[in-house]
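EI: anyone free to look at a 225-residue chain?
SC: sure, send it
EI:
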Amino acid sequence: MYLNLIQIAESLGVSEKAVEGWIRDEGMPYTPDRGRLLFDREQVAEWAAERGLAARAGFLARDVAGLGTSPMLGALLRRGGIWRDVEAVYAPAVFEEIVNGMTGATAAVRKLIGARVRAEGGVTLAPVGRGFALPHPSARVTLGRDSGLVALVMLKDVLRTGDDMEVNRLLFFIAPSPRSHLDLIARLSRALACEQVREAMAQGETDDVILRAFDEFDATGRKEP
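SC: here you go
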């Protein structure tokens, strides 16, 4: 499996310049490909282990078989939290705050994702109807099986999207890996099709009620409203 420079930097919690320095000075294995730098996951994992970096290797570690499926939605929502009475104009600042509190990622990775979230076009809003949207970082990230989150942001007012839709409930998420990104979108979409989950969020029920609705959805594997 080949990875690009950004994925390697994110996994090891360093800048892309640091990775380039390791290539130049430390012999990090790579493959040139039409002006790009590609990296074989197994080779880099072995290189990192030899230098005492295995604990920072994140998704490079060999026991990554489970990354294709992200954790249960209830667990992810507990990581990201439920944010209430947020003014729409401050939603980007809340996204950054959520990133800064993300567990299972190094400070360098949190800083990198936070910078991307702040940048213009750094978040894809992804409205899904009925006042809901699934915002997420526009650039895919690769973290680790203990990372990733979902955060429910309840807006005090209405946020108007580029296609003139109005949303006031945002399920901001960061998937543990690009491979689990589509899986997480699919499961969040199914959850929103579940009346119990959708109405708990729409009505602004207590945190316990909302989390219980997600837990019950996870337990039943419900696919229909």
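EI: The chain has two domains: 2-63, 67-220.
SC: 👍
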